[in-house]
Write a structure and sequence with these properties.
Oligomer: single chain
Shape: globular
Number of helices: 21
Structural class: alpha/beta
Bound molecules: 5'-O-[(S)-butoxy(hydroxy)phosphoryl]adenosine
Helix content: 25-40%
C-alpha cells in the first residue's frame, strides 16, 4: 500500500494558487450561474435529499412512480423504491417521439474518414430492431450479454438494445486480450457476445471476432455471437452459433416495447481492477443511475440544445457508459463519436474533428492532454477550435502545467475546464466544478456534486484538518453507486464499506483546502493508473507467475511523464532459468497477450529474491521507491533479509 507520506510528496509539487473565475458570458447562459446558486442547491441536496432527487427524477419518464426515494443506508441504500422505468426509453423514445425526432443523436466519424449521422428517430428504429434480434436469440430480462466492439454507433445500439429488454450488458474494452474476455464472460455467465469483424485503429485493423473465437474456447455458456460487419475483412463464422448483425436486423421487427424495469434492477456489469488478481464486476442498477447520469451531464457539461458534445472515452470504460451513452442521450444531446486514434493519420485528428463538426463540449483524459503537449502546439494551431465552449478532463489527477496548456491552447482562455473526479464504482461524477458557477484552480477537482458528501479522514476514520492529506471517503450513499460486486457481496462490502465504518472508501488520497476544494493525490492501494486505465498490480503479477519460467513477481507503479504511471515488474525466475534481454521482452509480451497491451510492463527487472516482511508479505513500498528514485530511503525495519535490498540496489547501478 502506498503510504500517505508518499502521496504527500506527490502532492507538494501540486500546490497551486491560481484561480480562474467562470467567464461572465458563460455564466450568464449556464444552467447554474453562480457559486451562491450552487451552494444553495447543494445545501438543499444534502438537507433534503429525498426532495432534491425526486425533483431530478421527475425530469425523466417513469412507467410507474416510486413509493420511497431513499430506503436504508450506506451499502444497503435503495433508490426510487418501486419505480419502473427503462433507460433505453429515456435515452431514445422520449426524444424520438417528441421534439427531437430529427435531431442528430449520434454523429460518428470512422477512422478512415467516413461520417454517419443517426437522428433520434433512426436510433429509435435501430435500437428496437436490435432488441428484437436479442429476443429472437432467446435472450430475456436478467440474462447477461457481453459486448466486445470498437467505437461505432452499433456499440451504443447494442447497449441500448440490451437495456430495452432488461438484459444486463457487460462491455469488455476492445483492447483486452482473449484470456481477459473469457474470465469476464465466465464470471458473469454471459449467454451471448456482440462483436464485429475488425475495427480500425491507427491505420491497421484489430481482429475483434478472431479474438472472441479464441476466448470462447473457454466459455461454455455462450450460445450465440452477433457479428457486426465493420470492415468486411474475412472472419470465420461458426455454424449455429454466429450470426451477422445486418442480416439479423433486416429480419427483425422494427417495434419492441421497452421492458418496465424496477429502479433497482441491474442495468449493467462493468469489470474493473482492484487489489486482488481477479477483476470485479461492478453492478450498476437502473433508477438511481439514470437520474444521476442525467443530472451530472446536464449540470457539469451544462448541456444546451445546440451543443455538439464529444467525450473521447471508449465505451469500454465507465466514462463511455455514463458520458457517451446514458448521460448525454438522456439529455437529448448530439453525441460525437470517433472510432480511431488521436494521431491518425496525423497528430491533429482531434482538432480537425472539432472544427469539421463544430464540437462545443470536449471531454478527455489528462494522458491525452500530455500527449498533445508533447506532439507540439503547431498541430493545434492549424485549427480554429472556435466552436468550443467547455472543456473537461477525467481519469487521473491533472498536473497544473497540463491544465494551463489545455486552458491556453485548446480553450483559448475562453472555455471553463471541469476536472471531474469519480470512479467505475461511483457511476457518475462526484467532485467537479460546475462551469458557470465554480471558480477553478488548476489541478483541483474543486467541490462535490449535489448530494455528495466527501470527507478526508485518517485510517481510523477521524476527520483530517483542511490542508492535510488523508483518505477520501463519501459519508452518504448516492443514487448511481454500484450496488454490489457481481456474485460477491462480501467482497463489495469488504472493499468499500469496511475500512471506514458507515462510509464508502474510494482508495484515493486527497486533501481539502481552506476554500473546501478537493485535491486528489492518487491511489493509496495496489491499484495503478496507466494512461487513465486502471490496473491492479496483483493482476499483472498473476499473469507473470503464470509464465513457466517465472517463480515470483511483484509489480509497482512508478511516475511517468506521459502515462501518469508506468508499470515496473520485479521478477524472480524458476531454478535453472537465466535472465536475458530476450526473456525480458518475452515476459512483457506475455502479459500483453494474457491481459491486453495496456498491461504490458514498461520495465522487467530480474532479481534473485523479493524484499519481504518477516510474515512473508512482499514490501511493494520499497520496490516502488526503488523503481521511482533508484534507491530506498524509507523505513526498512520490518524487512526480513537485508541482503535482498542490497542486491536490488546493486542492480540499480
Ligand atoms: C480512479 C478511478 C472515472 C472514470 C475514469 C476512471 C482516478 C479519476 C480523477 C480526477 C484525480 C482521478 C482516481 C480514481 N481518477 N478521475 N479527475 N482526478 N484522479 O475510472 O478506472 O474506475 O478509476 O481514477 O484514482 O479512484 P476508474
Amino acid at each position: 500500500m502506498a503510504t500517505l507520506e508518499e502521496s504527500k510528496n506527490l502532492d507538494s509539487s501540486l500546490r497551486e494558487n491560481r484561480v480562474f473565475a467562470p467567464p461572465a458570458e458563460f455564466a450568464a447562459k449556464a444552467h447554474i450561474k453562480s457559486l451562491e446558486q450552487y451552494e444553495a442547491m447543494y445545501r438543499r441536496s444534502v438537507e433534503d435529499p429525498e426532495g432534491f432527487w425526486a425533483d431530478a427524477a421527475k425530469e425523466l419518464e417513469w412507467f410507474a412512480p416510486w413509493t420511497k426515494v431513499i430506503d436504508g443506508q450506506a451499502q444497503h441504500t435503495k433508490w426510487f423504491v418501486g419505480g419502473k422505468l427503462n433507460l433505453s426509453h429515456n435515452c431514445v423514445d422520449r426524444h424520438a417521439l417528441g421534439a427531437r425526432k430529427d435531431k442528430v443523436a449520434i454523429l460518428w466519424e470512422g477512422e478512415p474518414g467516413e461520417v454517419r449521422r443517426l437522428t433520434y428517430a433512426d436510433l429509435h428504429e435501430e435500437v428496437q430492431r436490435f432488441a428484437n434480434v436479442l429476443k429472437g436469440l432467446g435472450i430475456k430480462r436478467g440474462d447477461r450479454v457481453a459486448i466486445y466492439m470498437g467505437m461505432c454507433p452499433e456499440l451504443a445500439i447494442a447497449l441500448l438494445g440490451c437495456a430495452r429488454i432488461g438484459a444486463i450488458h457487460s462491455v469488455i474494452f476492445g483492447g483486452f486480450a482473449a484470456h481477459a474476455i473469457s474470465d469476464r464472460v465466465n464470471d458473469a455467465g454471459c449467454v451471448a457476445i456482440i462483436t464485429q469483424d475488425t475495427s480500425y485503429r491507427r491505420g491497421g485493423e484489430v481482429k475483434l471476432k478472431a479474438i472472441v473465437d479464441q476466448a470462447l474456447e473457454k466459455c461454455s455458456m455462450v450460445k450465440n455471437v452477433v457479428v457486426y460487419k465493420r470492415s468486411g475483412s474475412p472472419v470465420e463464422m461458426k455454424e449455429g452459433r454466429d450470426i451477422w448483425w445486418d442480416q439479423a436486423m433486416l429480419a427483425a421487427g422494427k417495434e419492441c416495447p421497452a421492458e418496465w424495469m424496477d429502479a433497482e434492477d441491474p442495468l449493467y456489469l462493468l469489470y474493473t481492477s482492484g487489489t486482488t488478481g481477479k477483476p470485479k464486476g461492478l453492478v450498476h442498477t437502473t433508477g438511481g443511475y439514470a437520474v444521476q447520469t442525467y443530472l451530472t451531464s446536464k449540470y457539469v457539461f451544462d448541456l444546451r440544445e445546440d451543443d455538439i458534445y464529444w467525450c473521447t472515452a471508449d465505451i469500454g470504460w465507465v466514462t463511455g457508459h455514463s458520458y457517451v451513452v446514458y448521460g448525454p442521450l438522456q439529455n437529448g444531446a448530439t453525441v460525437m463519436m470517433y472510432e480511431g486514434a488521436p494521431n491518425w493519420p496525423e497528430n491533429d485528428r482531434f482538432w480537425k474533428i472539432v472544427d469539421d463538426h463544430k464540437v462545443t463540449v470536449f471531454y478527455t483524459a489528462p494522458t491525452a492532454i500530455r500527449a498533445f503537449t508533447k506532439w507540439g502546439d503547431e498541430w493545434v494551431r492549424k485549427h480554429s477550435l472556435a466552436s468550443l465552449r467547455l472543456l473537461g478532463t477525467v481519469g487521473e489527477p491533472i498536473n497544473p502545467e497540463s491544465w494551463m496548456w489545455y486552458h491556453r491552447e485548446i480553450g483559448k482562455e475562453r472555455c471553463p475546464i471541469v476536472d471531474t473526479y469519480w470512479q467505475t464504482e461511483t457511476g457518475t461524477i462526484m467532485i467537479s466544478p460546475l462551469p458557470g458557477a465554480t471558480p477553478t484552480k488548476p489541478g483541483s477537482a474543486t467541490r462535490p456534486f449535489f448530494g455528495i458528501v466527501p470527507e478526508v479522514v485518517t485510517r481510523s476514520g477521524e476527520p483530517v484538518p483542511d490542508g492535510q492529506g488523508g483518505l477520501l471517503v463519501f459519508r452518504k450513499a448516492w443514487p448511481s453507486m454500484a450496488r454490489t460486486v457481481y456474485g460477491d457481496q462480501e467482497r463489495y462490502e469488504k472493499t468499500y464499506w469496511s475500512d471506514i465504518p458507515g462510509s464508502y472508501f474510494t482508495g484515493d488520497g486527497a486533501r481539502r483546502d481552506a476554500d473546501g476544494y478537493y485535491w486528489l493525490m492518487g491511489r493509496v492501494d495496489d491499484v495503478i493508473n496507466v494512461s487513465g486505465h486502471r490496473l491492479g498490480t496483483m493482476e499483472i503479477e498473476s499473469a507473470l507467475v503464470a509464465h513457466p519460467k517465472v517463480a515470483e513477481a511483484a509489480c509497482v507503479g512508478r511516475p511517468d511523464d506521459m502515462k501518469g504511471q508506468a508499470i515496473a515488474a520485479f521478477v524472480t525466475l524458476e531454478g535453472g532459468q537465466e535472465p536475458s534481454e530476450e526473456l525480458r521482452q518475452e515476459l512483457r509480451q506475455w502479459v500483453a497477450k494474457e491481459i491486453g497491451a495496456l498491461a504490458r510492463p514498461d520495465d522487467v527487472r530480474f532479481t534473485d529474491a523479493l524484499p519481504k516482511t518477516r510474515s512473508g508479505k512482499i514490501m511493494r513500498r520499497l520496490l516502488r521507491e526503488l523503481a521511482t528514485t533508484g534507491d530506498v530511503k524509507g523505513d526498512t525495519t520490518t524487512l526480513e533479509d537485508f541482503g535482498v535490498l542490497a542486491k536490488l540496489r546493486e542492480n540499480e547501478e
